[in-house]
Amino acid sequence: MPRFVDRVVIHAKAGTGGHGCASVHREKFKPLGGPDGGNGGRGGSVILEVDPQVHTLLDFHFHPHLQAPNGTQGMGGHRNGANGDDLILRVPDGTVVLDNDGRILADLVGAGARFDAAAGGRGGLGNAALASRARKAPGFALLGETGAEVDLTLELKTVADVGLVGFPSAGKSSLVSVLSAAKPKIADYPFTTLVPNLGVVTTGDHSFVMADVPGLIPGAADGRGLGLEFLRHIERCAVLVHVVDCATLEPGRDPVSDIDALENELARYQPTLQDDSVLGDLADRPRAVVLNKIDVAEADELADFVTEEVSKRGWPVFKVSTLTRDGLRPLTFALWEMIVAARAARPEPVKTRAVIRPIPVDESGFTVSADLENPGGFVVRGVRPERWIRQTNFENDEAVGYLGDRLARLGVEDQLLKLGAQPGCAVTIGDMTFDWEPQTPAGVDVTMSGRGTDARIDKTDRVGAAERRQARRVRRGQVEPE
Ligand SMILES: Nc1nc2c(ncn2[C@@H]2O[C@H](COP(=O)(O)OP(=O)(O)OP(=O)(O)O)[C@@H](O)[C@H]2O)c(=O)[nH]1
Ligand SMILES: [Mg+2]
């Protein structure tokens, strides 16, 4: 059973908004007290948030389907529905959020960094909120909208300053264990370390984080050993350290060829983070070399022998023994200085403590174009018209009329007329297609049409409304003028 998971695909679904309520206030001796239907509550959103107590994406591996609660329906008596609670998913520091195409949506670094993964659906307005002077008693309410639904890939890229790379059994975990309070597993067989370990190293007044990743072998880029998979955890490191085993008895291995072999693999690794928070290709990262196990006499000799050769690459070389703790102090001080220099050379990685939101969509516009799949028909696209369709209860004529008014007011009808749309042609908005029935010749103020007027509430309006209704029928050619 896996205990550490650093890559998962999750399916997040935000809550659906509650429907608005259509209700009329009733009281003794006051049978028609006006519309009093409350609004539906908003659906809960799905939000990712960095929690420093969380170190793995394991939970999501077992529960990849995540659903925020729905909003509840509005009720009579002006009672609004309750909003669904947001579902907050706690993720480790350094979690990168990618979409299906591998694009980075957010890089969450720093406790409390947040990402709105899926927005909850809006609640529908109740008939009380829809009432206006022209529409005193709407006999309908708006539907709640469905919440957003997304598939996201979460990748953990550990946040550390120094990354250790080396062959299996070179002593990487041993080094972290002697420099920090971390207690990774150490053993004399290869691939002891299967998951990255972090340790906090203290040097004088400062401290930095060191990441021990599973060992690499030649061909790792092609998947040999544990592959390059874990190099993702050193993508953010300012400094890379080659940990070299000077006491190995394996034929064909020596410090210089070990370093060359790993450099080869590093060069083949493609980092996925390309923004300010990373420091370019792994190959360009400052390096240090740790020649380990000098408590073994032959290893000490070999280390002396290769120091000059290795130094030629311009990298500082340190001879250490994690067993006797020789050479550790100069190593940590030098690493700290390299970190400071690397940080100074590049702007401090942006700590995305702020909420990262998806790019806001321009809601104001809409487009009307000929429907290519349906000759003679038209397609209307736009955030608002499409939302209005979702909010409409098509079983309620009044609600459909209200939709028509909204579309006309936005200018959709005018645009259709301009493009030569004929009455009865198919118009598609969102996932609805209907026969177009132009209700407002351009220039007529639809707000005065009196839709939703309840004559019992406002008797003076009665005649006017009937007249206007008749006029509309005449315009549509449904009846002969009287
Ligand atoms: N003699 C000696 N042995 C050491 C030293 N450092 C580590 N070892 C031994 O080397 C073996 C491997 O050490 P690890 O720290 O597990 O090596 P690693 O690089 O983390 O190995 P993987 O996790 O498999 O990649 C263990 O048996 C350690 O006791 C050292 O300085 N001197
Ligand atoms: Mg190890």
UniProtKB/TrEMBL annotation:
Q: Where is the composition biased (Basic and acidic residues)?
A: 453-469
- List the PROSITE patterns hit by this protein, alphabetically: G_OBG (PS51710), GTP1_OBG (PS00905), OBG (PS51883), OCT (PS51881)
User: Which cofactor names does the annotation list?
Assistant: Mg(2+)
Please indicate if the UniProt record lists Ribosomal protein as a keyword: no
Broadest EC class assigned to this enzyme: hydrolase
One Gene Ontology term of the molecular function aspect = magnesium ion binding
Q: Where is this region: Disordered?
A: 441-482
Protein name as it appears in the record: GTPase Obg
Gene name of the record: obgE
